[in-house]
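Good morning,

Attaching, inline, the backbone tokens for the sequence recovery test we're adding to the shared suite. The designed sequence is right after.
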């Protein structure tokens, strides 16, 4: 792995625990043109979905998606991930209050290992502007895994408590003591993380970077991305007129497996391969493809995301067929042109 950062980039942000749609990464590249983001997520469906949903963005080239979990380990090692029904609550720790959907074999790696892959002598920054970590209980180990890079963080967003929702996680006092010992000062609570009167996610600033407190952007507009789902009847193929406008979170929950299937089916195609995606595992794409069918029987992903010209909205066309057809139509077109293209 080698993380190549364009010369026009002047800041680095890291999103550990990107979740199903990587909303933090999306906000950062939407509002800042010269920021590079490393997004790290252990659940394969999440990282693939996030990358595909973001691939339409002008600044998608300023991202690097990594399929892995971050932990305080010396070398990359294999581990189990508890993937919950509410996929954003998946964790390395055994959930006590969330239903487990399945377990995934994933790779754990320390964050220093990843940051060492940056050529620090040839980038236009010498510190990490913002680190967000939300790993459902493992956040203190994310920080411990950074080695000397911990002192390079300017602003830190961290999940400080999981409300005993997982077994044997480090407690809030341990996290706060570690931050104080390592020169971090409380900055503010994250307004959208209020649970039962307590702010779960909080912002801290490295005291060595207090002079940048008013220069680093920490508030972003809510991730309000939407896309149009265009349903297509297969055999004979034609538009049936059914279209749904969904927010990204709803889309990821309902169609994330189809996105994973499409990505697996096209990962070797030069016109659809996502080049800024890295996995420590040799992924069984065929197995992934097979595993997506039970979630949505009789549906398959038909085309890559496109723009709806008049609405300015990304579009995903789908098809319905049972059993699934042996070939998938790979025609990347505007939805207005779709009927003509498939005749």
């Amino acid at each position: 792995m080698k993380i190549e950062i364009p010369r026009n980039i002047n800041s680095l942000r890291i999103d550990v625990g990107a979740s199903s749609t990587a909303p933090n990464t999306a906000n950062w590249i939407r509002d800042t043109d010269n920021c590079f983001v490393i997004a790290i997520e252990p659940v394969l469906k999440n990282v693939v979905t996030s990358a595909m949903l973001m691939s339409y963005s002008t600044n998608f080239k300023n991202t690097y998606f990594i399929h892995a979990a971050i932990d305080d380990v010396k070398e990359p090692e294999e581990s189990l991930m508890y993937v919950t029904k509410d996929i954003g609550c998946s964790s390395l720790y055994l959930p006590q209050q969330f239903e487990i959907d399945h377990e995934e074999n994933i790779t754990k790696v320390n964050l220093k290992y990843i940051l060492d892959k940056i050529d620090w002598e040839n980038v236009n920054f010498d510190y990490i502007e913002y680190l967000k970590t939300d790993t459902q209980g493992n956040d203190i180990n994310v920080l411990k895994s950074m080695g000397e890079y911990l002192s390079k963080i300017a602003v830190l967003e961290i999940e400080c408590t999981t409300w005993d929702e997982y077994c044997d996680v480090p407690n809030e006092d341990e996290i706060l003591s570690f931050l104080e010992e390592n020169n971090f000062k409380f900055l503010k609570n994250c307004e959208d993380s209020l649970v039962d009167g307590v702010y779960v996610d909080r912002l801290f600033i490295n005291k060595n970077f207090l002079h940048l407190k008013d220069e680093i952007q920490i508030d972003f507009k809510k991730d309000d991305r939407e896309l149009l789902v265009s349903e297509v009847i297969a055999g004979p193929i034609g538009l049936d007129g059914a279209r749904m406008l969904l927010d990204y979170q709803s889309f990821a929950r309902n169609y994330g497996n189809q996105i994973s299937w499409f990505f697996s089916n096209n990962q070797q195609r030069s016109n659809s391969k996502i080049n800024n995606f890295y996995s420590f595992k040799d992924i069984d794409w065929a197995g992934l493809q097979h595993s997506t069918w039970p979630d949505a029987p009789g549906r398959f992903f038909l085309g890559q995301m496109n723009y709806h010209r008049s609405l300015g909205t990304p579009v995903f066309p789908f098809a319905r067929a049972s059993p699934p057809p042996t070939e998938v139509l790979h025609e990347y077109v505007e939805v207005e042109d779709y009927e003509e293209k498939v005749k």
